[in-house]
Amino acid sequence: MEEKRVKRRIVLVPVPAQGHVTPMMQLGKALHLKGFSITVFQTQYNRVSSSEDFSDFHFLTIPGSLTDSDLKNLGALQFLIKLNQTCEASFKHCLGQLLQEAGDIACVVSDEYMYFTKSASKEFQLPSVIFSTTSATAFVCRSVLAKLNPDKFLIDMNDPEVQDKVFPGLHPLRYKDLPTSAFGPIESILEVYTEVVNIQTASAVIINSASCLESSSLAWLQEELQVPVYPIGPLHLAASACSSLLEEDRSCIEWLNKQKPRSVIYISLGSLALIETKDMLEMAWGLSNSNQPFLWVIRPGSIRASEWTESLPEEFSELVAERGYIVKWAPQVEVLKHPAVGGFWSHCGWNSTLESIGEGVPMICRPFTADQRVNARYLETVWRIGIQLEGELGKESVERAVKRLVMDEEGAEMRERAMDLKEKLNASVRSGGSSCKSLADFVSSLETKSS
Ligand code: UDX
Predict the structure, then answer these.
(1) Ligand 1 proximity of 19 Cβ (cutoff 6 Å)
(2) Residue with CA closest to ligand 1 atom 6
(3) What would the pLDDT profile of 291-321 be if each residue is shown by its tens digit?
(4) How far apart are CA 333 and CA 163, in angstroms?
């Protein structure tokens, strides 16, 4: 039936960063499978190359948008603010042209951080749909934070005694778990959140999550936001699609094939995290002392003041040759699926979190910034499938965490709970599951609007 529907077009506007591009492209694929034509508006920075998965997609570039060198000079938060200022007029112009050429546009789906799109959607009277690529709980946090008095909040955040207290209304999140350290000063972050959560002109919110993970946060949003909220994730299970911005080194799969079942610790800190040399050395020696095999993704430039791995000591290179493997970028989902993987040391970006739960792999959580602390707290205390490493990183705590996760009974129990969640997540995207139904409801809401 779906194939016969006249193809309507959906416009997608991703944030140009791996953790946002990936779920947006998966969403595009899911909507394409429902019969829509897809146009992706990209900036000049971090463009997705058209792969087999997107051969039918139409890619357009927003002229005048910022470039790689702008990011280097501005830092991530200022880059985002400037991107929103720079793109508003040119996007409006491009969208107007597309409407003239392609006619029927069902809606504009933009990443919540690409808030510049709202005025164009309003001007052309197109439904504006917000896509949140982070968890529902992180969305709740942003909504709560945007309403606070920034001066009072700043005083609280600077008080060391407040850090470990649970934030009122956000149990089990503590002040220190809030997403307030996103690459810039709190004042600027709160300013951005105010824009992000201003959804007055939006017709719906799509979230890459599932009700079996975050039912109370989703219920809170449904009540607060006054527009339909569609939890349709995890999208990598619903519509997997390759949108890696870096080249994947597949040789690590061959290495994994030679390891014992559930013995390997996989380490990856996502596409943005920057680690201090001191912490990297504690990680290295902790891994060494744990005696477990490890697969470590060290992204070039991710260790401060190093090009790649040159700050690792000579003895560690010998250990790597013996029972480790280092790559610049891995096919992460495939790695997590591999039977040799026993645990995932992660920065707890939302995609990595969903990918790990989706494969039933328990985690060591070492969050850096933004929503990662929220996810880490949920992994440890709500889903109970993660061990969080807090405070200063030491080789002893690293060794202990690896052993607890891979060798101890505690780790085996975490894996059992993770496997249970894996089943639930997979069921949610199958026919009849909550996320599958939610996607169908979103699609029929677009059909209702057109009639
Ligand atoms: C960013 C934020 O930091 C994160 O907190 C937010 O939730 C999304 O945006 P990032 O830090 O890159 O994302 O983390 P994450 O969300 O985990 O996304 C990383 C993606 O890169 C994952 O889909 C992962 O599979 C992929 N990846 C990572 C690889 O394909 N190979 C690797 O070697 C490492």
Answers:
(1) yes
(2) 349
(3) 999 999 999 999 998 899 888 888 888 888 8
(4) 34
